[in-house]
Design brief:
Length: 434
């Protein structure tokens, strides 16, 4: 679904012709593109009479239960010893998407961000459905006058944060994802790798303070009054295992979390923060246990930073989970602290294995009811009541974009039917989403 590039590149007459063909097909084949509601995937009813002031959602991309076990064995000599595993409530949840038993990060994060299942590759728009924008946790909390942050070790426009801060039919549209961040959803803190649609120039033009390294990030003085974009390097942050020199000037995930909490902790109505350990997944795709363990340990260190901060308070919910498992990892033998466990991998892609959920703080006990990734949305919002008092930051382009998207969908249906064989071939040649 790339309505904007299609309308931008094709001659108007050609577009009009395709649109007419699309309208005709819409009349002839209504069942193929008629909007249909996506039923909630879980029967769990997660409600509360109290709401946390702050909600912190940690997502280990590709972090299944075996990844967690392996990291505990390496660090402490036994499984069950990570900080996230010390949280008092836990569960496991399914992660399937609207079109596949095996989700990608876009659909997995969209399920958590919006409570709705979408097709793989889709970022918080109703596909299947009418393509309309699905309100994300970031947007919901903004409407309740809370501040919001997105922090990741991937580049900042990557699929997981994008599901919380963008509405796009394709995770590949990083330029539009960046535009959604900067001019529509406006996360107050946006920390991750740079480039890929973001630049210091376009962030500054949107009113963001831009920081490019650890020193600049740590020099930010709370309270945060405007918005800040941390663009650390020009792609994903380095693997923790590989590259000590890569972190000479760039911040570790735990440092990004520490800085973010310092900036947001005095927000008048609290905050929502999504933190992704994004490269556990990449190491899983490569079946690299050393990188996988080190990424998981830094992720757990970031959880520890948040837990240490929150444990002095009584107003915060911390949820730790994953979007899916990657690699089909199984731990065969524990080789003691400081040694990587013996493992097998069953895949170089994602799997349908249910993933762990850990929770601490206000409403954490409700995590025991979580059975599916869509339940994370309900858990994060439990207890939030009353009328939203803050309006979204901007109405720019929202109407125009919806219109464009609908026209784009009609065009896409036309093109898809007209060159179906080509589309299939192209889809098969596409690399597996990471
Ligand atoms: Zn992946």
């Amino acid at each position: 679904m790339k309505p904007k590039p299609v309308t931008g590149k094709l001659p108007p007459l050609f577009v009009a012709t395709l649109a007419m063909v699309g309208v005709a097909l819409h009349v002839l084949l209504p069942q193929t593109i008629t909007a249909r509601a996506i039923a909630p995937a879980s029967s769990a009813v997660i409600t509360s009479t109290v709401a946390p002031r702050n909600v912190i959602l940690f997502i280990g991309d590709g972090m299944g239960a075996e990844q967690v076990r392996a990291a505990g064995m390496y660090q402490n000599g036994s499984a069950g010893t990570l900080v996230m595993e010390s949280f008092p409530y836990s569960s496991t949840m399914t992660t399937y998407s609207a079109d596949s038993a095996i989700t990608d990060s876009a659909a997995g994060a969209t399920a958590m961000a919006t409570g709705q299942k979408v097709k793989n590759g889709v970022l918080s728009v109703a596909i299947p459905g009418d393509g309309s924008e699905l309100e994300t946790l970031l947007e919901r909390f903004h409407r309740y006058c809370k501040r919001a942050g997105l922090v990741t070790t991937t580049y900042a426009t990557h699929a997981t944060p994008a599901a919380f801060g963008a509405h796009e039919g394709s995770r590949a549209d990083t330029t539009y994802i960046a535009a959604d961040y900067l001019t529509q959803t406006k996360p107050d803190v946006l920390f991750g790798g740079g480039a890929n649609g973001l630049s210091p120039v376009n962030a500054a033009a949107a009113g963001y303070t831009v920081v490019l390294n650890r020193a600049e990030m740590q020099a930010l003085a709370p309270p945060l009054t405007g918005r800040v974009s941390g663009q650390f390097g020009v792609t994903h942050l380095p693997y923790e295992y590989d590259d000590a020199s890569g972190y000479a000037t760039l911040p570790h995930l735990s440092e990004m979390v520490s800085a973010t909490l310092r900036l947001l902790e005095n927000a008048p109505n609290g905050f929502f923060l999504m933190v992704e350990g994004g490269r556990i997944d990449h190491a899983g795709h490569d079946n690299n246990i050393a990188r996988n363990v080190f990424e998981t340990l830094e992720f757990d260190h970031a959880v520890e930073v948040a837990y240490t901060w929150a444990s002095a308070r009584t107003d915060t919910l911390i949820i730790v989970t994953a979007d899916h498992e990657t690699g089909g990892l199984t731990v065969i033998a524990n080789n003691g602290a400081g040694n990587f466990p013996t493992v097998t991998w069953a895949s170089t892609g994602h799997t349908a294995t249910p993933v762990p959920v850990y929770a601490w703080g206000v409403n954490a006990e409700l995590a025991a009811q979580v059975t599916d990734n869509t339940d994370i949305h309900a858990l994060a919002l439990a207890g939030l009541t009353g009328t939203p008092a803050c309006t979204p930051g901007s109405t720019r382009l929202v109407t125009l974009r919806s219109d464009t998207r609908q026209i784009g969908q009609l065009i896409l249906v036309s093109v898809t039917i007209g060159v179906g064989a080509y589309s299939l071939l192209e889809a098969r040649s596409r690399p597996v989403p990471r």
